[in-house]
Amino acid sequence: MDNNQLFQKFVAFSAAVHQITNDITKDVKSEALTPLQYKILEYIAVSQPVTLSEVSDCMQMSMPNTSREVKKLSEKGVCTRITDPDDRRKQGITLSAAGEALMNEAFQQIAVRFEQRIAGITAAERKEIEQALDLLQQKVFY
Amino acid sequence: MDNNQLFQKFVAFSAAVHQITNDITKDVKSEALTPLQYKILEYIAVSQPVTLSEVSDCMQMSMPNTSREVKKLSEKGVCTRITDPDDRRKQGITLSAAGEALMNEAFQQIAVRFEQRIAGITAAERKEIEQALDLLQQKVFY
DNA sequence: CCCTTTAGTTATCATTTGATAACAAAAACA
DNA sequence: TGTTTTTGTTATCAAATGATAACTAAAGGG
């Protein structure tokens, strides 16, 4: 039943992460973007270049809906699509300059709030945190 | 600039947690509940008894919308509201028996998937993971 | 060369979610 | 006691998201 205890911790922890990150990213999203669009853009930012299918898979949304939302994003000028010369069905989606700027600004704000949150932490603690992040990402959240 | 590196790790980590938990809880939600309703129920399950205002705060949604969704949940028979005798404006929201059953089933499924994920881990690693979860929850995601 | 599969698009409709105004009742307070 | 604040409700509307069908074009495979 030790397994169950670990699971309890996992659930509580995941809930905490969701809550804190929601809190931190709250009203960061540009007025021009819907929440979904912001999330998609965030995904593009981290994984670019990506294909439509990859966005669809990762965001767990249907191709038609993905197509629609990404189309809106490129109409808003925050991302660019270039047809893959090797397979002209595919397109590489990347952030445009405007998109990069927008996401930089967002991350900037998030960074500020993150730093407030860990303000007054010692160097040793920081080291511990880094190691814990690495460990969990490697063994649980991979 | 060490701060910035830690922040990078934090962002990557949060993204990973979101993705994995989304994956794990995917299609766990009962057919009878919308995603929002499932999240609210999950929150009630963890924090019961809660008031409408607390749900509203925590889920970052307006009181009217919170009222509507919680009303739907109680109409579906998964939660119960009892007026606080000390302050009859407030109501304590808890899971009903059916709600408990539903959430138990959901957690059961999530637990199974979690265990698959950490299958083949040594006792020492398990210990490390537990400590890492505790540390982060205490120092970052509090 | 035909057939199938993969990648993506467009259109349309239903449902969910968000926002706002107008309200009621209990509690707090002056 | 009368007024204000807190807690919640109801109704209504707009916008976002989800689901599905019908389609195009390129690639792959026999």
UniProtKB/TrEMBL annotation, chains A, B:
InterPro entries given in the database record: HTH_MarR-typ, WH-like_DNA-bd_sf, WH_DNA-bd_sf
Pfam family, any one: MarR
Residue ranges annotated for the HTH marR-type domain, each copy included: 3-138
Keyword Repeat (UniProt): no
Keyword line: DNA-binding, Transcription, Transcription regulation
Domain of life: Bacteria
Name of protein: MarR family transcriptional regulator
The organism of origin for this protein: Paenibacillus phytohabitans
